[in-house]
Structures are given as C-alpha cells and as structure tokens.
C-alpha cells in the first residue's frame, strides 16, 4: 500500500497536520516512522478512517443578498470549528427567507440527511435552518442518527432583524390573500395588518439608531 507524508495526508483529508497528530495521539489513526523520524501514513487506512467518521454538513443562511457579509461570517465560523475538530465537512449556503421551505440549499441538505451519509449537522444558531419548523429538521436528524451541533445559542441583532423581516413577509402574504377576497371585513383586517407592519418597521428603525 502507498505511504504518504503528513502534509500529503493533510491535503488528502482536508485537515490541518496538527489534527492528524492529535488523531494519532487519540489512537484514531496510526503512522509509521522513517529512519529520519518522519511520519508516513497508509492511504487506504486513512480513507477508511475518513469514511468511518462520516460527513459533517454545515448549513449557513441569510435572508437577503445585502447580508452576504454575515453569510460569509457564518461560513468562516463553521469552517474554523470543524477544522479544529478535525471533521470532514461540506458547507451548504442559502440566501432566502427563514419561512421559505423551497430553498435550493435546504433541499440539498434534506436529501443528504435522508441519504444516511451524514454524521453531523453544524449550524451557527437554530434560526439559520428555518424560522418556523426547525424542529422538523432536528427530528429528521434524530431519526437518521445525525448529531446536531449549534455553535452559538445566543440570538444576535442580525438574527433579530431577520425575524422582523420574516414577520413583515408573513403580514404581506396574508394581506395579499385577504385583499383578493375583497370583503369589507377583510379590508378592515388588512388595514390592521398594515398598521402592525408599520409599527414593527418603525420599532426596528428606532433600535438601529440607538
């Protein structure tokens, strides 16, 4: 079987050389030593270790394109976290509302979870999955034996702003549906919904100025 250096093994598995050294200390992998004391790894055994460890999927999401900087921040946080853990990982990203269940990345995530190839799901916080219904994804993970890792349980200001955006979107959708029915009672309800949306927007703008 071919033997490779620690740097080649690092490139093959996509992990830092220090991760390989730690794995060896923990007994997860083994290496042979050259007369000069350099590590040499068996390719087949390394790949078998990688397959046994399973795939880690990182999922990042923001609501709008102007939030791409926050999306990139989520990706970097999860990447650093997974590399520190020595996990074989893939990052899936979405730009779309937290109440939209038909996003491309979310669909891909669900298919991977159902495939049985995923060992763990990593997110920065719960609301990155879905605003309403994240528990369904968690239930699917539990059914498939997938570990869920939530790096940050605290809800930051950007997440709160997205929540406001999602609430406004819900109001807009319901207002449009009610308007199509054109009854006097519905018009009154629409007016109340519009007033609520205006108050939410004004509150959000005030918070941003403080």
Task: Outline the structure in words.
It contains 8 helices and 7 strands, in the order E-H-H-E-E-H-E-H-E-H-E-H-E-H-H. Strand 2 (32-33) and strand 3 form a beta hairpin. The protein has helices at 6-13, 17-25, 43-53, 68-85, 104-115, 134-144, 157-181, 184-209, and strands at 3-4, 32-33, 39-42, 55-62, 89-95, 118-123, 147-150. The protein folds into 3 domains: 3-51, Multidrug-efflux Transporter Regulator, Chain: A, Domain 2, CATH 1.10.1660.10; 54-150, 3-Layer(aba) Sandwich (Rossmann fold), CATH 3.40.50.1390; 157-209. With 210 residues, the protein is α/β, with parallel strands linked by helices. The strands form 2 sheets. The chain has a 4-stranded parallel sheet, sandwiched between helices. Residues 204-210 have low confidence and may be disordered.
